[in-house]
């Protein structure tokens, strides 16, 4: 069993409606400085992650997240604020379904034509938080001050997921129940650059590859789509799931893609050739396609890739979190969790955070194992080469095999 590290419990009052309290999303800042989650009832809580860990060590695992004094820090927006991370409680005005952190790299120019005048000039130390709302709006906040910067309006339904390009360009992609994905350029004051159409049903999630060149989007009706983010065109559809696909994430080297579905399975794909390399089942024996396509009590809600590229976490409706190795058929660790909705690894991969239906967050220590030489070699070369290029290298076939992720053989 995994060791519990701590928990952040959402404040409750006797007259709270149960509906609207859900914690649909949790997120860590790219530099590991902040942790954010949706507490339910329109509220997002931003906490300095190091402070959070210190509290867990000092006070045991329990920590009620309702400090009133943190509201004062929102009034302060001077430069000294940036040096010391502060907690913020943000009222987003509607139920929050998605969160994403974005950080700026000044050298990355905006793709827009008119660069004469911009409302915002994002510097090196900029850290933004995007929140996707029930009414289709996306609000962009300054993490250091808690101030609202932009209000992006174009989606007509719930914004179910958000992801920033990892290259620091502040390109934001949103996935919505209105069956579209939208691409926004925050360096161009939040201008909407493109609408990606192709989903015939709700879009549940989206994720960038580490080099920002490919976007994966997943949705209802078994949909897993890959998009070329230079041309904004669809590369391919990945077929294999038997029910709605609700979450996706690339491995740190970009060579693997994990997708989670209501069909009780997590698949690990080679996205470059569209092949399933590994299947992690959450129901045994594996259900038939008809049963997998319905209400099977084992819906997988969330999946996350660890930063070691070796471990994957999944969260399912059977009140369990599972930690998997990409080369083993069965979980290496498990943890109990009632009514879980989402999970993500911390920036350094040492902790997994999971959100629940009552607006709380729970944290577990993750499996720590020394990576094999083969895994380290694979990650090093796959960061810069897709599958086809590795297979065409002028090296012995055994070495090519050593460097490629293979389809797992059933024991």
From TrEMBL:
It holds the Pfam family SOCS_box. WD repeats lie at residues 122-151, 152-194, 196-237, 238-270, 300-334, 345-364. It comes from the Eukaryota. Keywords: Repeat, Ubl conjugation pathway, WD repeat. Residues 363-409 form the SOCS box domain. GO terms for biological process: intracellular signal transduction; protein polyubiquitination. Pathway: Protein modification; protein ubiquitination. InterPro entries: SOCS_box (IPR001496), SOCS_box-like_dom_sf (IPR036036), WD40/YVTN_repeat-like_dom_sf (IPR015943), WD40_PAC1 (IPR020472), WD40_repeat_CS (IPR019775), WD40_repeat_dom_sf (IPR036322), WD40_rpt (IPR001680), WSB_SOCS-box_domain (IPR051983). SMART domains: SOCS, SOCS_box, WD40. The keyword Repeat applies. PANTHER family: WD REPEAT AND SOCS BOX-CONTAINING PROTEIN 1 (PTHR15622:SF12), WD40 REPEAT PROTEIN (PTHR15622). This is WD repeat and SOCS box-containing protein 1. It comes from Chrysolophus pictus.
